[in-house]
Amino acid sequence: MAASAGLRGYLWGQRWNILLTTQFIFTCGIVYNRYQENQAASPATKQQQPLPKRVDKQQ
């Protein structure tokens, strides 16, 4: 039991390190996923037509 208590104490001391590392990896996964989705959608965005000129009714 002493070994598990030592391991538990070590992990408790490293909790912020573990938390921030997990958060960083998770965020990188989201950013990479959005990048991949944008790369897949890029041919469609290149074919978009410009918006027509807006006519204000308050002239």
Radius of gyration: 25 Å
Count of alpha and pi helical runs:
2
The number of strands is 0
% residues in beta strands = under 5%
N-to-C span: 83 Å
Q: Unreliable stretches, pLDDT < 50, 5 or more residues?
A: none
Shape: elongated
The percent of residues in helical segments reads over 70%
* Chain-averaged pLDDT: 84
Determine the structural class based on helices, strands and strand pairing.
mainly alpha
Largest sheet: number of strands, sense, barrel closure: none
Q: What is the N-to-C order of secondary-structure elements (H for helix, E for strand)?
A: HH
Detailed description of the structure:
The protein is mostly helical. The protein has a domain at 10-36. It is built from 2 helices and no strands. The chain has helices at 2-13, 15-46. The longest helix is centred in the middle third of the chain and has 32 residues, at 15-46. The radius of gyration is 25 Å and the shape is elongated. Residues 40-59 are annotated as: Disordered. Residues 40-50 have a biased composition (Polar residues).
